[in-house]
Every structure is written in structure tokens, then in C-alpha cells.
């Protein structure tokens, strides 16, 4: 990769981290497609090409126009086999999309969860419609409209709902394995702990051992499975979810910081403060300034 491309990727990723959202056109030049050291963002992409997509423990062959949903939980790779490579894509954080609504986690959506189907084959009419939504997003993204973020969320949700009405692709050529199943059960169980709705009772499950016991598996088996399928440790998933919930509670409730810490399993406020600062680089109080 040349220096110019590296600079473009750096600018792209920095902009995305700052705003939580980015939309762009794919013009057929693979060297200009943003490259991430790790995928921390959700992605929706409409693409026309003949490709092989490795998604978790499955392989998916595509030929024509497809709509793809990727998330930071499940690793994937994309190989262009032949033909044109063009389309549109947007990437965004869960915090961006759920800025005003933390009731549902994105990875629980049929489009993003491990046992869901992330790829849809599009007919010409569907392609034209989805293309038009991406084109509108790109146009609006370049404006100074004060409610631009809300408009972007509306377009993303429209694409998601239109996709859920489509028939999913059936071109999987490898079935899910035991690791995928146990990982899916772990993520589902993790998500059941949230959102936290009372400040009087702490989280029931806080460690990999807690989850392994609830799933009736050895903690080493759980850790190996989660790492194999998602590329991240069990502890990392638990930590990221707790931090995400902490931010939501700090921003959307009037609970005291001590109460928030207790509800998330921290017996003392100092434990919560140190944990939050170590993982985010800032103190909980800063989210309320």
C-alpha cells in the first residue's frame, strides 16, 4: 500500500472514530477501499461482483449484486473473484445508531447476529432502491444540516427494515460448528443482562466463569470458542458491553455514579471509577459535564 492510500485510510478511520459514522462509494479500485487494523464498526455494503466471503465459520459465494451486513463481533474476509467491483458502503458504531434508544442491541438483529444471514441477493429493482438511499446519504453527509445524524440514522434503519423483508441468500457452503453455537449462546446470554433497569440489584453474570456455569460448559471451552469465532476474548466482550451500558446510564439517567457502578457489579465507587478510566481514558463524571 502506498503512502497516499495509507494516509486516506488513516483520515477515514480518524473521521469515523470522531463522528461514529461514514458513508462512501466503492468505485472498483480495491486499493482505495478503507482498511482497518481491526473492525470496530458495523458495516452495510451493496456490492456488485463475483466474490467469496468468509464469514465466521462459513463461506458464501456471491455473483451479482448483494447487500452485506458486517459487525465487529464476527470476523470476515472478502475475496473478489472476477467481474466489476462497485457499490456503496456505510460504517457506523452502535453508539451512533442507538444514540437515543438503547433498548435493542444491534448484534441481536437477524441481520447482524452470529446465527443470522448477513447477505441478500438483490434484483434490479431492489438494487436501484438501495443505491438511491446510499446516494442520498452521501449527498446529505456533505451538508451542514443540523439534524444530519438523525437523517443518517433514518436511512440506515430504512435499509435494515427493507432488507428484513427480503429473502436471505442460501449460498452457504459450510455449516455452523459447535464453537459458533456456543458463542451465539454466550452473546445472547450476555445481552440478556442489559439494559440495566434497576440500580438496586447488580449484574448477575460478570465473569467468563459466571457465563460458562450458566451455559453448563467449561470456561476454557467457552473462551476458546468465543475467541475462534469472534477473534476477541470472552472478557473483552463482557468488558465492552459493561462499558457501553455504563455510558448509556451516565448519559440517559439521573442515577448517581455510585448507583451506576453498583448496578454494573462494582461494590465501591472507586472500583468503578478506576475501571472506567482504565478502559476509556476518562472518568465517568466527564460524560455528565
Automatic annotation (TrEMBL):
Stored Gene3D superfamilies: Homeodomain-like (1.10.10.60)
In this chain the HTH araC/xylS-type domain maps to 180-289
PROSITE patterns in alphabetical order: HTH_ARAC_FAMILY_2
Pfam families named among the record's database cross-references: HTH_18
Instruction: Supply the name of the protein.
Output: AraC family transcriptional regulator
Question: Which InterPro entries does this one have?
Answer: Homeodomain-like_sf, HTH_AraC
Give the GO molecular function terms: DNA-binding transcription factor activity; sequence-specific DNA binding
**Keyword presence, Magnesium:** no
Q: Which UniProt keywords apply?
A: DNA-binding, Transcription, Transcription regulation
